[in-house]
Amino acid sequence: MQRQGEGETPDQAGRQERKAIERLAYRLDELAKGLGISRRTLERERSAGRFPQPDLTIGKAPLWKPETIQRWIDGGGH
C-alpha cells in the first residue's frame, strides 16, 4: 500500500494541493459562474466595495472561503 505523497510526481502533488485549496476556497471565475454573473461584473462589484474582500491571495489570485460568500449572500449580497 502506498502512503499519500509517495510516488507522486511534482506535477501530481501540485494538482492535489490545488484541489485542496479549491475545496476550501473559491476563485473569481468559480464565484462568477456560481452567482450567474460575468467575471467582469464581479470585478466591478469588488472595485465598488459591494463584494467581500478575499480571505486569501495566492500570487495575484484572490480566494474566498465558502462561509464568507454565504454570509454575503445571507446579508442580501451588499
Could you give the distance between the termini? 50 Å
Largest sheet: 3 strands, antiparallel
Task: Bin the strand percentage.
Answer: 5-15%
Oligomer: single chain
Structure, described:
The chain is built from four helices and three strands, in the order H-E-H-H-E-E-H. With 78 residues, it is mainly α. The protein has a domain of 50 residues. Helix 2 crosses helix 3.
Please outline what is shown here:
The chain is mainly alpha-helical and 78 residues long.
Notable characteristics:
three-stranded antiparallel beta sheet, 4 helices, 12% strand, 78 residues, mainly alpha
Per-chain topology:
Blueprint: H1 10-24, E1 26-27, H2 28-35, H3 39-47, E2 56-58, E3 61-64, H4 66-74
Antiparallel strand pairs: 1-3, 2-3
